[in-house]
Amino acid sequence: MCGIVGLFLKDQGLQANLGYFLTSMLITMTERGPDSAGIAIYDSNKSTGVKITIQSEHPDNDFEIIRSRLAVIIDTAVTVVVNDTHAVLGMDMDKVNLARQVIGELCPNVRVMSVGEKIEIYKEVGLPKNVADRFSISTMSGTHGIGHTRMATESAVTTMGAHPFSTGIDQCLVHNGSLSNHNSLRRKLRRAGVVIETENDTEVGAAYISYKMQQGSTLQEALQSSLIDLDGFFTFLVGTKDGFGVVRDPIACKPAIMAETDQYVAFGSEYRALVDLPNIEKATVWEPEPATVYVWKH
Amino acid sequence: MDRLGNYIILILIMLIKGNWMEDDQSKNIPRTDPVQSATFSNSINSEIRRAAATGIYDIRGGGAKRKVPHFDDLLFLGASISRYPLEGYREKCETKVLLGTRFAKSPIELDIPITIAGMSFGALSGPAKEALGRGATLSGTSTTTGDGGMTPEERNHSQKLVYQYLPSRYGMNPDDLRKADAIEIVVGQGAKPGGGGMLLGQKISDRVAQMRNLPQGIDQRSSCRHPDWTGPDDLEIKILELREITGWKVPIYLKIAASRPYFDTSLAVKAGADVVVLDGMQGGTAATQDVFIEHVGQPILSSIREAVRALQDLGMHREVQLIVSGGIRTGADVAKAIALGADAVSIGTAALIALGDNDPKLESEYQALGTTAGAYDDWHQGKDPAGITTQDPMLMSRLDPIEGGRRLSNYLKVLTLEAQTIARACGKNHLHNLEPEDLCALTLEAAAMARVPLAGTDWWPGKSGSPF
Amino acid sequence: MQIIDLENKSLRELNAKLQAQSSSASQKVWEVLNPKGGHAIATGLNAPIDVTIKGSTGYYLAGMNQLATVRVEGSVGPGVAENMMSGCVIVEGDASQYAGATGNGGLLVVKGNASSRCGISMKGIDIVVFGNIGHMSAFMGQSGNLVVCGSAGDALGDSLYEAKLFVRGSVKSLGADCVKKEMRPEHLIILEELLKKSGSNAKPKEFRRYGSARKLYNFNIDNAY
């Protein structure tokens, strides 16, 4: 079980503080999820390229190999920004697939956390505060972001088991609850060619949404059909390039609170997560209805 | 005319010869013995007939009756040249256990590692609950309330009382909560993982109805989920609330059915429980659908090692105590459960049998109910001849609570002495020093489930480093 | 008046002080500052004291309340006044799920909206919501009165026992065994009293009554699911 937080900024003036707010929201959700934590930040910088966020258990070694060899092998400029166990590689969009292949060959144990024009995902095992500190999340800026603190239910506590899960370009998902048909769904999706790496039920939810969108659904439609195809208790918060989406299952036992002002739309598993946001006392605070899809875009 | 006579004689001869030949045939050609189907057995067929007649599922009490791998399939390795036994009497084998040491200001100390499991007043008669309280107190152990609240008799007769906190919250109130020696949050029970309580109209007497705030004579259904929390993340907050209401004084137990014991035990620890109570499918219930009892949930034998593994992985073995239940019958069962890593065991069905449930001396009455001693499980009908699982005043009066308390205490004493005998033979001065390496298994299933070597080998299925 | 600021006092200190009033109610009036969505605030009280929470709280505010009057100048999280035995809890803002869950007595007033499962398994508590309530409200409600001045969500009163439900606005759908019932003079009197006690301007005649059809009280073939 878990804690989820999300922040979508309407006011550009707050973008420099996105990481700061998300970090504080994340830390209040520590008791709900002491095992591991993760954050997806959608940055506000204009860029023409694409970012691949990778993670390694031997960062010094692996990132040095990549830094010295990747650009040469794929014959394109590659920027490498290292952040603790993660690194963000920047390159042209059309080199991404080749780059992933080469990285897989150069450093087989490196994991790809996210791919996208704006998204960066950082996640590790450990208390939320420690995870946020090691990546200096509180210094990051962006337009929107989602975060998650995990208490593992039916799968192992590992880095890859942490949320957010990203299974599409600029897409990620965090989940509070427990899916009851994830094993069957995982098999179906794998047979359809979708790559799913862990036994975690949330990754199945993420893969399902990405798969649907690949097949032509909008985010709204994908979340809507998840209400039929997914069984169990779930609150999903999905991040996309432009914004985020929220859906709760029809039984709606897992908590979800939203708050909106002129400056932002915020999401938390508990009201406690929202109390330090600017002007929260004046915010419209409500709970998303069950079996209803909400989407916010810039 | 002669011809007719000839024909008649011919026919008569043929008939006689025919019969004679038939006799011959029946003597010479063997018949197959009638074969009963293992799939369509007599009891299955009778259930199909009952379902066809009534259109409703069968409801009964008790735990899983079918044979499942159990403690009987494990044996202890006693003293040998390399391991020395303890003498009885002088060389002590301690049995005390302390429960709730993690967070509670007042953990519970028990003289013996055997507690009485939760059974409701309502499911059981008042005198039965009193008998359990008396017996437990004589033996220095605890009883547990059930899905109906705390009665004054039980609180007064039970020196140590664990108060169950169930989805129904029947009778729940802060005054009783503060009178309890421990609080047991019930997520599930072995007989019906995922099912709620059930008490049929025949047992909703005035007093039961009043305690549960229900109309008299209805069939009571309990909810299967707690009304105000879902999931271990919310549970953590609920445990905080219960501690705040009781001043952090008493231990908080978490009772789970044997379903996903590894994950459930981890989550119980993460949610902040002091004690985990794990109930296997042989654990009884007052009433539920037979199909639930027999087909949902795992045996206790296959669950204990998983629960202990979860505690060990979190570094919490013996810090968060583990009580197991579901088919504990003898001191050997007690010793085996503890050897596999439990801190204590809990008995329910066995306690009722000690009080007199299903006693053959009442056979004529069982027959009148359409059953026989040992098989009587229609407890929900409230007609128990032993006066234990009934609210009928006439039947209830058959159980003398003082005598019952004595019988229970005798039984608990035997369980303890047996466990000590085994432990001493294994060279232990405390029951808790029993370990899995003191055991071997008679069957592959038991070996795999308990992770104990098959007798005569050093192997069990799934053992790491083995080629299988 | 005693003021306790949760910025520099722990939850345990707050609750211990409030709970101690049951043995010697020396202080009758209390104020709690900076609740900041915290959980289990003012739980297990057992004295006729008056406590005002200045802000919004998390789960289980005033859980198992006895005798005390607890006012919240803000909103509350899940399970407000759960298992309340007596006394009064007044929420100026909204209440999250499970408001008044399994309550045995007392009065819970929510001046904003209550969320899903309002009054779940209620056992004698009276709940008055000025706004709307969410789905599965009064699920398995055994006794007590739920008064909703706004509208009710799906599956109102599913598996209801004897709790009485009064709704002024619309009901999205009724749960199993819950039916509309006749409003009789004695019901209007109950409504009048509860509306007055809670400070609502609504008129009893504007409400409709819902209750159990009592068809699920005994197991029989037709009810099997």
Can you describe what's shown?
The complex is a heterotrimer of chains A (298), B (468) and C (225). Chain A is of the alpha+beta class. Chain A folds into two domains: 3-44 and 121-297, Glutamine Phosphoribosylpyrophosphate, subunit 1, domain 1 (4-Layer Sandwich); 45-117, Ribosomal protein S10 (Alpha-Beta Plaits, 2-Layer Sandwich), CATH 3.30.70. Chain A is built from seven helices and 16 strands. Chain A has helices at residues 18-28, 59-74, 96-106, 128-134, 182-191, 201-214, 219-229; strands spanning 2-9, 36-42, 50-55, 79-83, 86-91, 111-116, 119-125, 144-150, 165-168, 171-179, 232-239, 243-248, 257-260, 264-268, 284-286, 293-297. In chain A, the strands form three sheets. A seven-stranded antiparallel sheet of chain A has the order 7-2-8-1-14-13-15, covered by helices on one side. Chain A is globular, with a radius of gyration of 18 Å. The two termini of chain A are 30 Å apart. The mean pLDDT of chain A is 92. Chain B is α/β, with parallel strands linked by helices and 468 residues long. Chain B is built from 16 helices and 16 strands. Chain B has helices at residues 2-28, 42-54, 126-139, 152-157, 174-179, 206-212, 232-245, 261-271, 290-295, 304-313, 331-339, 349-355, 363-368, 393-396, 401-425, 444-450, and strands at residues 59-62, 74-76, 97-99, 108-110, 114-116, 142-144, 160-165, 182-186, 198-199, 220-221, 252-257, 275-279, 285-289, 321-325, 344-347, 439-441. An eight-stranded parallel sheet of chain B has the order 5-15-14-12-11-8-7-6. Chain B has a two-stranded antiparallel sheet with strand order 1-13. The longest helix of chain B has 27 residues, at 2-28. The termini of chain B are far apart. The model of chain B has no long low-confidence stretch (mean pLDDT 93). Chain C contains two helices and eleven strands, in the order βαβββββββββαβ. Chain C has helices at residues 11-20, 185-198, and strands at 2-5, 29-33, 50-54, 69-72, 88-91, 107-110, 123-129, 143-148, 164-167, 178-181, 208-212. Chains in contact: A-B, A-C, B-C. The B-C interface holds B 54-57, 59, 168-169, 172-174, 177, 200-201, 213-215, 218-219, 221, 223, 227-229, 234, 237-238, 240-241, 244-248 and C 11-12, 15-16, 19, 39-40, 43-44, 46, 58-60, 63-64, 66, 78-79, 82-83, 85, 97-98, 101-102, 104, 117, 120-121, 123-124, 139-140, 142-143, 159, 161-162, 216-221, 224.
